[in-house]
Amino acid sequence: MAGSGKTTTVCQSVRQATKKGLFKSNGCYWMKIGKFEKLTYDEAIELLALLAVNDNDQTLRQNPVVKNVIDSCQGLPLAITLIGGLDLKTDEEWNQAKDIIAKKSADIELAHYGFNLYGTLQLSVDTLNDEIRPLFEQLAVFKRVGIPIQSVASLWNYDEIEARNLVKKMHNKSLLTYDKEKCVLHDLMVDYLQQRLYSHNSNQDYRKSLNKTLIDSYRNQCDGKWNTFPDDGYFYPNLIYHALMAENDEYLQSIMTDFDWMTRKIQIDRTIYYLDCDLTNYIDYLKKRNKNWEDFDQLKQLLKQQQSCLDGVDGDVIQMILWVDMSDSWMKQRALQLAKENVRNGKSYWRMSSATTQYTYDACKVFGKNRRDQSISVSNPEFGPLRIIGTQNNNEEDCQIIGTQNNRRRDCQIVIQDYQTSQTVLQISKPSMYIREVEISADGRTAAFKQFNRKDEWIVYDLDKNEEISFAQNDQGEDVKTDFDSVQFCPAQSQTQVIMTLSRNLCEVRIWKIEGNFIRPTNKQISRQYKIEYCRWVLMQDSVCVLLWWRKYQSQRGKFEDYERDDSEKWINECQIEMWNAQQWTCRSFKVPAFIHAKDDGRYFATNDFQHGLLLTRISIYRDAAYMILSYNRFRSKSGTIGLLKMEQDIEFENQFQPILHDIGYVVDILVSGDQSMIAIDCFKKEVILKMSGGQVQSRVELDQSGRSMFIPGSHRLLIYHARNVYEYNLQDISQTKSVDVGRPQRNPQTTVNIFDLIEFVGIEDYGKYRELINGILEEESAAKDLIHFRYRKKDNTLILFPIFSSFNSWIITINLTTGMKSVDRLTWSHLVGVVYVDDDYLYVWERKEDDSLKCYKFGDGEYQLLQNIDYQGEEGLICKIMMNYNPHKIEHSPLRMKKEKLVDVWGDKHAEMIANVLAMGLLLLLENGDHIAILNQDGNLYMKRYKDNIKYFDPFTYTQFFNHENLWSDKQLILYEKYSSLNIYNPQTLQLQITLPFPHFYIEDMQWNLQHSQLIIRSDQDYCLVNSMKKE
């Protein structure tokens, strides 16, 4: 906020100006409105002289009345500035001003000053004529921020030129400041205007009326289409505030059901946070009036749940609802209504229907940018704003992909965001490194990240200062090696500058403390001859501890390097668990078996049968160290158990181990909520949640979601980071009586699709009479009907079926739907195979064996032919150019691994440039079809698409695929999909991305297109959905 008067030469220096609450802008000093020191008499004279038209400071110094006025103002810069703006000439005018200022019996007192500030402000405002004064008073309706001229003009119903001229007049009278198309009223002036206008009972409705005037003006400006009002920096952040102040139900209903306005607001704010705040305030408003608030609470929850989808569709609320809402809700109906209107104006929308997936997490937001962004960490919201840290554009070995022709570059960033607002707090660029792990301190002010360059090294970073913090040299003056296995910040509020490290050889734990610009060691450390399997801070009610464990083993020299993990003779069936009090540095230790086996009565006992026993893999602490949570598993097996064990000195494992979960798969981590009521078990591909009461399980919940998991400290809110998205589950409302699935898909086997469903969907005529024939053939081949691909060759009415190639033996079935001619051709390979490319006439298959090979098959009418078999060495790779306008295809090939100069010699400049820009090993297919060129890898993933001179390269880690060859070469629309995340629609000529439609829980196996209905059917192994583009009606 700026102040109330200009002073170009009030102070001799910037230092003095700053001290007196002034700042420099455009060569002028402007007054701040914070609490600052009073002006001295000399400074007040300089300020008055600056504002006076004819008087200089000497003239003012010689006038004793002026001194009396300055003394009456008590050095308050605002009051002196307002007096200067009155342009007082005679002693009589100065005396009148002094009398008003000195008057002690003012009806209203402002800011507890010892003079009549209210009268001083009134004196200044009353200098305005009767036409302008009401306009100035109306400015009190705005929030105490910079007010854009456009909003001022809307309020006054003036054009912007007229409004600007009036504001300049008010500025010249020091009533406000005007700069860069915004005006600002001093806080005290706003206080004065609001007391003057709103203090009397007869004026209680004036505030409501004034806000209604502003909203009416806004509506008239945009003709009721709220999203068309220009972004002036005030309208979108504050529209709902003023509508609520006006208590205008009609406008509130209109705005809060205008998804176009919401879209525009999200795009401007770059977050849904502020829209969420508006919805919260509106819901509270409706609740107080006993009106329907549930509908808008439903919208609020959907926006939070689908924030990642909003990111993909550029904040388009209509598109998001059409994509994710499978119900017949009011939101869906409103979105359809608005979409139809917008389609008539040239917009396009995609709609999903018949999906079986249900979204039941509470919130989801995009954080990472590629699949290598896998590590996040969060601070403690009790110690400051909740912050989240992670990577964006992470990549192994080197965080850059640089192309010569298209100048592609991807740089890795460590990003710290405010979790609520999604606003970036800081970005740390590490362009040539792969970041393995990130950590953030409990207060969110310090970060650490593990970088991989030539070796693993940890960097600790001061987020406030935006600089690295170095480890102090040791006593010998040597640099400390920072190649730790892990770095963790202490979770206690009083110890957020304390760090724990585990050495690279996993044998030493050390505690450090950040002091100024250095990290210094403390005298607290733990050294063991055995490998420490696990080490973590544990925050308890009255203390913080270090929890660690290690298993014992035998070796020739007692060193870990001599230990053979697979040699059971070297094992001792004992693990040591230690609990260190971080303050007192005292230790409690416990012995538990390393291997256990189950008895028939459900109890478990220690066993030396290491080959068949269950191995201790994870531990945690429950109920403030009253219990240990122990996980015993067999790797890659569902055989396993998790149980509680009291932390007592003498443990009788067989009698005291209390199983709480059986038949659990491989356990990645065990987490406990802040209030100890929830245990989250992070398994290999799912999350199991146990609601606890004492030592008993009340209910069990399975989340069909995997990834990096953590509780937000002190809460029931569980975060799971998977495939660039952060999913948030609020586990507080878990049922206490039965198991509940709050994760994705309540799958219904009746809604899955097989090959016959897909053929019917595509609308192939004459298919029905051959269905029994096809079914019989598939049964003979023992083929699963949901693991088959097919193609329909329209030119000769032939259906071609083939399985997902993954076995040694496979087949191709062709049936002519006109003649009934059929052929079953069995293909035998020596090793695993995969389809690289298939169209109506050709099938390209990659086979892995001692010498890898690419095979090209040509389909006929009831027959097939192996056209070419190209063997190549895996270390050399293979690049094949296929000219598709030839019949049969013309194929040229060479080794892939060549220097750029050699590639140019073999393929020419144009093709060599494209090949060199693709990061690939093994096999590449370069397909050329007229103006179109595409490059595929051996798995059929699209690495590059070219149309004439326009080129698009695709991230090799996103597994980009196309669903049929017609679409790959289409001039109308290019539809691509990333198997793990999204459907992406491109302009086929410019190759510009038009829209991203997310599939966060949908592994896309196959897509088919129904041309007649312009509809896609997309299926995974168990789910399916229908997708179509909305057309003009």
Automatic annotation (TrEMBL):
Gene Ontology molecular function: ADP binding
Membrane-crossing segments per the record: none
Coiled coil: none
GO cellular component: cytosol
Domain APAF-1 helical: start-end pairs: 209-341
InterPro entries: APAF1_C (IPR041452), Apaf_helical (IPR042197), P-loop_NTPase (IPR027417), WH-like_DNA-bd_sf (IPR036388)
Keyword presence, Cell division: no
One Pfam assignment: APAF1_C
GO process annotations (BP): apoptotic process
Keywords noted in UniProt: Repeat
PANTHER family attached to this UniProt entry: APOPTOTIC PROTEASE-ACTIVATING FACTOR 1 (PTHR22845)
Full protein name: APAF-1 helical domain-containing protein
